[in-house]
Amino acid sequence: MTGFRASVLTIYPEMFPGPLGISLAGRALQSGTWSLEATQIRDFATDKHRTVDDTPAGGGPGMVMRPDVLARAIDAVSPADDTRPRLLMTPRGRPLTQPRVRELAGGPGVVILCGRFEGVDHRIVERRGLAEVSIGDYVLSGGEVAALVVLDAVVRLLPGVMGNHTSGDTESHEAGLLEHPQYTRPALFEGEEIPPVLTSGDHAKVALWRKTEALKVTRERRPDLWEAYSRRGPGERDPG
Ligand code: ADE
Predict the structure, then answer these.
(1) What would be the CATH architecture of the domain defined by 169-240?
(2) The listed CATH number (3.40.1190.10, 3.40.630.30, 1.10.287.110, 3.40.1280.10) that belongs to domain 4-155
(3) Which pLDDT score, from 0 to 100, does residue 166 have?
(4) Residue 124 C-alpha to ligand 1 middle, in angstroms?
(5) Which end of the chain is more exposed for a tag (fewer CB within 10 A), N or C?
(6) Which residues, 6 or more positions from 193, have their beta carbon under 8 angstroms from its beta carbon?
C-alpha cells in the first residue's frame, strides 16, 4: 500500500498542507496514509516575470490562466498514464457530493488544479480531462480553499484516519439525510433537559426518534435532499 496521493497545482503552494497538517489529517499525512505535493504553477512559465495569465479573449474584466503553462505543470505531476482523476476547482463546476468524496477516497489519489483570476483557458479542461468541481454556490478568491475542502473530506474517509470516530452512515449526507440533533451531559443545561427518550435505555425507541428527527430536519432545511430521498424506493434507503 503506497497510500492516497494528492498533487495540487497552485500559485500559492504555501497554503498547503495548511489546516491539513494538523489533527487527524496531519497525523495521517505524517504516517504515510496519504501524501501531498503542492506544485508552483509559476515554475512552468517561460518569461522572466513567471507569468501564468493573460487577458480574456473577447474582452472583459480580469485575467485567464494560460493553457500552455498549465499543460506543462499538469504533465510534470500527472503524466498521460496517471490513473488519478484530475479536478479543476471552480464555481462553475459540478457540486461536490459525499458520493463523489467516497469515490475519490476509494481511488489512488487526486490531482487538483486551483483556478485563480477569472478562470482558466477552457482548452486545458478538454485537453487534460479535467473534471470541474465546485464546493458550493458562492465565489472564493481562488480554488485553493476549495481544494483543501475536497482533501479534508476525502482524507477523513481513508482507512485508519478516523478510527472510532467514523460515524459511518449515520452522519449527515451519508444516508442522503441530514443528521439528527445530538446531546450530552449535563442532563440539565440552562433549564433545558435532554429529550427523555435518549436517556431511556430503549435502543429501538432511540433509533426511531433519531430517524424521525433526521427526516424532519432534512425536510425543513433541504427540500432538495428530501425530494431525492422520498423518490428512492425503501430498498435503496439505509436500514432503520
Ligand atoms: N473557486 C472559487 N470559488 C469556488 C467554489 N465555489 N468552488 C470551487 N472552486 C472555487
Answers:
(1) Orthogonal Bundle (1.10)
(2) 3.40.1280.10
(3) 55
(4) 18
(5) N
(6) 187
Task: Give the cell for residue 225.
Answer: 435532499
Map residue 193 onto helix, strand or coil.
Answer: strand
Which residues make Cβ contacts (< 8 Å) with residue 73, sequence separation at least 6?
9, 39, 41, 43, 44
Which amino acid belongs to residue 48?
A: K
The binding-site residues of ligand 1, defined as CB within 6 angstroms of any ligand atom, are 89-91, 115, 134-136, 138-140, 142-143, 146
- Which residues of the chain, if any, have pLDDT below 70? 1, 164-169, 233, 235, 238-240
Sign of CA dihedral 145, 182, 218, 205: positive
What confidence score (pLDDT) does residue 239 get? Answer: 54
CA distance 109 to 74: 15
Residues of the chain with CATH 1.10.1270.20: 169-240
Q: How far is the centre of ligand 1, averaged over its atoms, from the C-alpha of 17 (Å)?
A: 18
The bridge status of strand 53-54 relative to strand 64-65 is antiparallel
Nearest CA to ligand 1 atom 5: 91
**Residue 147: per-residue pLDDT:** 98
CA of 146 to the centre of ligand 1 (A): 6
pTM of the complete model:
0.95
